[in-house]
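Why do we bother with a discrete structure alphabet at all? Because it lets us treat a fold like text: something you can write down, compare, and reason about line by line. To make this less abstract, here is a complete entry for Calcium homeostasis modulator family member 6. Read it the way you would read a sentence in a foreign language you are learning: slowly, and without expecting to understand everything at once.
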Amino acid sequence: MEKFQAVLDLHLKHRNALGYGLVTLLTAGGERIFSTTVFQCPCSATWNLSYGLVFLLVPAIVLFLLGYVLNARTWRLLTGCCAPGTRSSCGSCRRRALVCAQLSGMAAVAPLTWVAVALLGGTFYECAASGSNILVRYLCPAGDPACAAQLPLVPCKASAPEGQDLRKELRAQSQVLGWILIAAIIIILLIFTSVIRCLSPVSFLQLKFWKIYLEQEQQILKKEATEHANKLAKENVKCFFEFSHPEEFKTPSMKAWQQISSLYTFNPKEQYYSMLHKYVSSKEKSDSIRSASGDTVIPALGFVDASGIITADVTL
């Protein structure tokens, strides 16, 4: 039991890193399965380019879109934004644009992994490049017609020595591009993370405390919401079968739900750890927790919006 608790604590502590690692492994494994069992290059000058690019890029686009769909911040941002009577100020639009940029960065992990692994494997690139007229002029000097005719057959492991040499050259190009892409991703990620941490308005230990608070708040919120919904459901079902009037049952108003579901903004004058914290603290002061002067979206605090009562809501 103690070992299970230790594993659970490790999962909670490194949940994001484990999640990205799992996505990377699944993406790499999926690419290997596609390249060995599904992909069959037509070895045709007409179809090689389009066929190879479809397998290289279309799964990456699908994974990119899934990255949006499976992120709770996407639905926090979109839910109710086009409802009648909703007004968006310029400041709100800027905040939404910044959140969209952050979402795009997180959603790009899986597609970039797919492209990098595919380039290292070389199968998709070989097929696509062998049907490119630009590479024909590069790989076949002086417009050698025999070389141009042999190039589309390269992915089919042509037995001719010239075909084997062309295949090795295409494989080398693909792998070089793959390593360049991996290096670029790591460098950009390192720079981006360093800049975000440097611009963080809170210290390292307070950031740790903040994440612990959010985990506890969401666990308690889910538990209380479940109990509250259970009591309300029981009362309504009981009244339905007994033809009686329900007892007075207090639930948060629609406005309250909207306010705690809005995008989080940081204000150094009044520091709150979540929108729920801000709502509870500001309820006695005013009837709204709308953005005030000084409220900004801080990329280092993007994890505040990433949590929800039930993260599986994104599948609805």
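What the structure line is telling us, in plain words: The chain has a mean pLDDT of 80. The radius of gyration is 27 Å.
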